[in-house]
Amino acid sequence: MGKYSGNPAAAAALFEGHQVHRDVYIDPEVFRLEMKHVFANAWVFVGHASQTPQKGDYFATSIGDQPVIQVRHSTGDIHVLYNRCPHKGTKIVIDRQGNTGKFFRCPYHAWSFKTDGCLLAIPLKKGYADTGLDQTESARGMKAVGAVRNYRGFIFARLAEEGISFEDFFGDSLSSLDNMVDRSPAGRLEVAGPPLRYMHHCNWKMLVENQTDTCHPMVAHESSAGTAVKLYEELNLPEDAPKPPAMEIIAPFMSPYEFFENMGIRTWPNGHGHTGVNHSIHSNYSRIPGYFEKMVESYGEEKAKAILDENRHNTVYFPNIMIKGPIQQLRIFIPLAANKTLVESYIYRLVDAPDELTARTAMYNRMINAPTSIVGHDDLEMYERAQEGLEADGLEWVNIQRLRTGEEDFSEEVVENGTTERQMRNQFDAWARFMTWDTPAREAAE
Ligand code: FES
Ligand SMILES: [Fe+2]
């Protein structure tokens, strides 16, 4: 038994307000506790409704380390079921996605289940007569997760049966998702193809923290973005020459510290927050012809302007996704082990908007987030160096103290200087609370 085994309170104590112990990134037992508690008690993103548009469409993924299936039931509702046969545990689906028709059928002994998980049929069922099978959990079929919510097409689930409500968990942070969806003249998004997938040999929290780390772009991305800017300047083009879209995307990564200080960071309760309160690296993209007119048609001029003037940069939804409203992107950081994380970067199409917007979004994804990206590798190098460096003995703590001048209250929405590390502390505050959410220690404290 290691020092954290079965002891979420000991793990939660690894966050001390201004610092976190290295074990939160490197210890396999802490990782197991995160999967069991944090990822069970929080609301976790599963998928987008447009990934399962037809009845019987399913999408296999995971919530923490739990294999689950998002499926469109015959009523049109989306259900999230554990990907496990109630007979002997066999995974029901193995493909990433598909259509199962009116029911799932286990490949081992052919028990079948409706698409809401209910048991439909068992071959040679008379063998269970008078056995009391109907009194067992197995007879209820494929188990559903604790709670599911479809928020404007985004499917979130909470594994735990009891816990914080969707509204309390997200609160006003939903404004970032709203803005992303409102950018469609039809108020609807559709997933644009499969995600870019990229394996990282580091802890999942390093990636989440990086999403609001505004003191790294001009340093870590100097080799990629800095080189691009330098080469472009050497072309000596006239001031008013139109900037190629790729330059519009990459140049802002080299913005100076003041740009990031002034952009601002907003933090919400429960570990959510976003960079880019006042402006962001997405603020100065060229207008796409015809798009604004479409927005005005749908929303009226004032509202259309308000939607498009919101240029939030990265919004982190605790525990493990980030969205970029202005370019309709969602990245999910899928924890596989203490030192292994799969990143999936999705893009969405704004229904009824010009295709050029999707083209720009796809270009951003390829340039910044693809395994072949010139920017993503800079970050990957830093995470993997940190993962290795943290094994060095002699120094056990990681500092997250920038712009922290005293005790902080994370139950309030706060806007601050854009180079603060408050959002990282906010995440760890939520991490520690959801780690111990379902423990007697917390129940006693309430
Ligand atoms: S394991 Fe699924 S039917 Fe037996
Ligand atoms: Fe970066």
Write a structural description:
- The chain is an alpha+beta fold and 446 residues long.
- It has two domains: 45-151, Rieske [2Fe-2S] iron-sulphur domain (Rieske Iron-sulfur Protein, 3-layer Sandwich); 190-434, Naphthalene 1,2-dioxygenase Alpha Subunit, Chain A, domain 1.
- The chain contains 16 helices and 21 strands.
- Strands 12, 13, 14, 15, 16, 17, 18, 19 and 21 form a nine-stranded antiparallel β-sheet that branches. A four-stranded antiparallel β-sheet has the order 5-4-3-6. Strands 2-11-10 form a three-stranded antiparallel β-sheet.
- It is globular, with a radius of gyration of 23 Å.
- The site of fe (ii) ion has 6 residues, from helix 7.
In the CATH scheme, what's the topology name of the largest domain?
A: Naphthalene 1,2-dioxygenase Alpha Subunit, Chain A, domain 1
Uncertain ranges: none
Strand tally is 21
CATH superfamily descriptor of the largest domain? Naphthalene 1,2-dioxygenase Alpha Subunit, Chain A, domain 1
Q: Percent of residues in helical segments?
A: 25-40%
**What's the gyration radius in Å?**
23 Å
Mean pLDDT across the residues is 96
Most strands sheet:
9 strands, antiparallel
In the CATH hierarchy, what is the architecture of the largest domain at level 2? Answer: Alpha-Beta Complex
What would CATH call the class of the largest domain?
A: Alpha Beta
Q: Gap between N and C termini, in Å? A: 30 Å
Strand content: 15-25%
How many domains make up the 3D coordinates?
2
How many helices does DSSP assign?
16
Return the structural class. alpha+beta
Estimate the global geometry from the Cα principal axes.
Answer: globular
**Small molecules bound:** FE2/S2 (inorganic) cluster, fe (ii) ion
GO molecular function, one term: dioxygenase activity
Pfam families: Rieske (PF00355), Ring_hydroxyl_A (PF00848)
Keywords: 2Fe-2S, Dioxygenase, Iron, Iron-sulfur, Metal-binding, Oxidoreductase
Domain Rieske: 43-123
